[in-house]
Amino acid sequence: MRPSSHDYHYSKGGDVTAQATETRTHTLPDLIEPVRRRRRRLTPYYLLIPSAVILVIAMGYPLVWQLVTSMQQFGLSQQFGQPAPFVWFANYVKLAADPYMWTVIGRSILFCFVTAAATMVVGILVALLMNAVNRSVKIVIQIAMMLAWAMPVVAAMTVWNWLFDWRRGVVNWVLTTLGLPFQDHNWLANPLSFYFVAMIIVVWMSVPFVAFSVFAGLTQVSDEVLEAAQMDGASPRQRFWNIIVPIIRPVLAIVLLLQVIWDLRVFTQIKLLQDAGSIASQTNLLGTYIYQLGTGSSDFGTASAVSIFVLVLTVAISAFYVRSMLKEDA
Amino acid sequence: MTTNRVAEETTTAQYRPRGRANRVLLSAVGILLAVVWIFPVYWMINSAMLPNVVLQSRTPTFAPFGGSFDNFASVIQGGTFLPALGMSVVIAIIVVGCCLLFAFLAALAISRFRFRGRKAFVLAILFIQMLPAEGLFIAQYKLMSSVHLLNTVLGVSIIYIAAVVPFTIWMLRGFVAGIPADLEEAAMVDGLSRTQAFMRITFPLLAPGLVASGVYAFLQAWNEFTVALVVLQDNADQTLPLWLRGFIQASASRAIDWGQVMAASTLVAVPVIIFFLFVQGRMTSGLVSGAVKG
Fold this sequence. Notes:
The structure holds two protein chains of two kinds. Chain A is mainly alpha-helical. In chain A, 77% of the residues lie in helices and 0% in strands.
């Protein structure tokens, strides 16, 4: 199919009216057209200016500052205003040799994966449950999920601290009533049970999002297909793994990715639990470690190096997410 | 015919959880789940209504019979709540206003124009949206301290706007793309000016998107803790989340008065819960829109 000369005119850029006027002598609109065209070409850039400016100021500049600072050494003399010497990658080398840094990284990754996995499993179960029960029970579950989701994180943390309070907390009371030895048990003293409490709280907050998203995915699974599979003799387990899971896989992938990213950078929950009484050095994750380095000991060089590490890690994991979002941006 | 129908009924019945007993069991599990999930929220309100004497008892009180609003009154009369509320409100208004304006313009650009650098910009906002505050807050702290904006509404607002605007652009982009440009042009052919066409045709269609994005920005600004913790270090200038943290710490020096702390938490949470109910559906679909077809 060779384009006719007529088509050629269209594709050259003129719209129908422009082509119609072509045969005539140049009129005033024709002469104005190039000016207007250029203005229109620049319009999108003008529209982007406000967003771009604020992003450069509050994100771009700190990012560059942080990259530079991560290669500077901060010590006592810098607190008295001496300029920090440039040491290239010394901070990174120092961190790589620091067993505590590896402990914090290990903890963060472990906490992230266990919490994200728990959130996914519970979230999927809740979604399946919402799909199976009748309408009124479903609405009750949805309201409960929505309220938990809506709670501001600091308010939620306050409540959970109260629930796990060692003397008057309901959790200890319930466990004691059940005959378990939890009278005056301090959950936050031991790092392992500290993380357990943190995990419960994060799971409680994150499950609603997972449940609603997966539930939305489940509505795409048609009853006919499931019935057909059942008539062919597929067991419930087979129906779940071979039909439901493949259909909702895109949702699962995105939701899991977001959970991993969010749980990796968990800060507020850990910080506020530490406030409630536990030793920070034993319970630090990446976020609180950076906070301690930067605001506690004013070691901006090391703090920046750890921050850069966190950013690189996040961007690497986010790449998948961004790619799937871009697909939508046609 | 009849046999056919019987067969059909058995299949649907079998596809549903088998039998009545099973369905009752599932419903019971569902109700139990809802109770467990809602319990912390309930417990916050319950404790907020009870006097400290009752809360100090070894046995918890599960319903606020005979409770009162005294805790709320003493929190508000404590004198620090209202300034913090004021600060949070001012920051939220600035953030919502700027975000909507900036994001609307940017959304117009990326959904109505094809231009060089468009893809790079979209990529940038998607990545920036994922950047954790914890990876940048030390640098943002130094930035604000170098321009003397620590402990100011303006300083916090600038960081919040930058943190929220990427997702707001992304959200609005979907709405703007959903309104055909032809609609506006048709109105202009009918004799409206470009501004009139925009105000009468496009803007009303865009309103739900603006509301949803605005509520999203509000929630982010209202709940934010990490950046506020670093940038607002002065006790006199605090947003509500910081104030709540300080309230517990002040209370902890005596034995914690959990009744008042829970009343304070309730005061912080209630506006959020109300706003959240508006925007919930939109947020889910915005975050996973690539995977779920609406």
